[in-house]
């Protein structure tokens, strides 16, 4: 299981963040880090608002660090998916993402299960 | 705040040579999801709009759907049945407990009081478990529907909730002394919010920690609050400690309120018989609720076909943002984080609209 978790909120309602806080309590080995460079795994939440697009691009390009899309917004933009794609699609981030956890929001134990799976796979090689 | 991250909000301060803040402001519209526009353009059917309104905020989604459904019902002249009123009120108080437990877990983390933090998160987990039994969901409960409830709640869950809440109330009460003593070491006297004429904008625990007794549940009673007397915890100090203590008292208060509601939930229908506009409907509705962070106000204008034409939301953090900027003046830069955490800003609500 990864240890240093970087959560990047790309326009979330904080529902996923609440479950992630709960995750820190049910999996005491995990720690939130505030800098991208320290991260063993990056979790993306939220609908990808225009203001956060540049940041999302940077995350995608970091090699060796698995990216997990968390929540319906992170996975498919959920209710916010624009019919014309005007806001940009989080699906584009899928190229860098190794896992997705659906749910609005997914419960902490569901996120934990995905992180545990990642730990079994060893280092991630995608670019 | 542990999620004090550049993509959500930015605290801009100017400090003098001694590291004392002279100017401060909070910026944070980076998570703008334009929910008001989205409702008008794509989810104008109020039944569908509820789902997107609920997702304004993970911490106070029930307050938003309460205000939205209430505004629509007022605009169309719909009256909801007694059972729906009781369950809606219950949801509001359980949400307050859940939200304050989360908020206090943030401030106790910032103040490095780990034992308290664990107890408060335990309270979060307990109330979340109750909410799951009642609504089937941990965060977005989906309880409210236009004209009543989206679905009925199991009676067995309501019976269990009452005994769990009584024990939760006692365990939060037991925290009181240690809470004020431990947090007082770093929060007493820190980041005072006051105004010269004693009149602070809005309502909410931040204002009630600075001597204001305003509470929408009292000022414009809705649902069961008219016939449900309760004390409004108020502190005069206006510092970060008072803000935390008011929230702890409100948790205890809300447990008691929820227990009383649970003692007599009426049986019967959960939905109004008709959700069409009544003949003398005004098609304009406003509803303010006392969300965990203060006054949350939704205004709607409906079309004759019962669709949302205009929609405006005013969230409580709009008032608290003013408070945090004022309270930070004179605080050392190193303590800014504690003061911000004590205000429990919700940037998802603030930026989401």
Summarize the structure in words.
The complex is a heterodimer of chains A (127) and B (353). Chain A is 31% helix and 17% strand. Chain A is α/β, with parallel strands linked by helices. The radius of gyration of chain A is 13 Å and the shape is globular. With 353 residues, chain B is mostly helical. Chain B has a single domain (9-350), classed as Cytochrome-c3 Hydrogenase, chain B (Orthogonal Bundle), CATH 1.10.645. In chain B, a hairpin with a 2-residue loop joins strand 5 (284-291) and strand 6 (294-302). The longest helix of chain B is centred in the middle third of the chain and has 33 residues, at 155-187. Chain B is globular, with a radius of gyration of 20 Å. The mean pLDDT of chain B is 93. The chains are: A alpha/beta (127), B mainly alpha (353). Chain A binds chain B through residues 7-19, 21-22, 25, 32, 34, 46-47, 49-52, 55, 78-80, 83, 104-105, 107, and chain B through 2-3, 5-8, 29-33, 38, 42-43, 51-52, 55-59, 61, 102, 105, 118, 121, 124-125, 128, 138-140, 346, 348, 352.
Estimate percent helicity of chain B.
40-55%
Structural class of chain B: mainly alpha
Radius of gyration of chain B: 20 Å
Portion of residues in beta strands of chain B equals 5-15%
User: How are the strands of the biggest sheet of chain B laid out side by side?
Assistant: 5-6-7
Number of strands of chain B: 7
Taken in chain order, the helices and strands of chain B follow as EEHHHHHEEHHHHEEEHHH
Give the N-to-C terminal Cα separation of chain B: 22 Å
What is the averaged pLDDT score of chain B? 93
Low-confidence stretches of chain B: none
The CATH architecture of chain B can be named as Orthogonal Bundle
Largest interface: A-B, 32 and 35 residues
Number of DSSP strand runs of chain A: 5
Sheet of most strands of chain A? 5 strands, parallel
On the 0 to 100 scale, the average pLDDT of chain A is 79
Number of helices of chain A: 4
The profile of the biggest β sheet of chain B is:
3 strands, antiparallel
Task: Look at the structure and name the CATH superfamily of chain B.
Answer: Cytochrome-c3 Hydrogenase, chain B
Question: How many domains, in number, for the residues of chain B?
Answer: 1
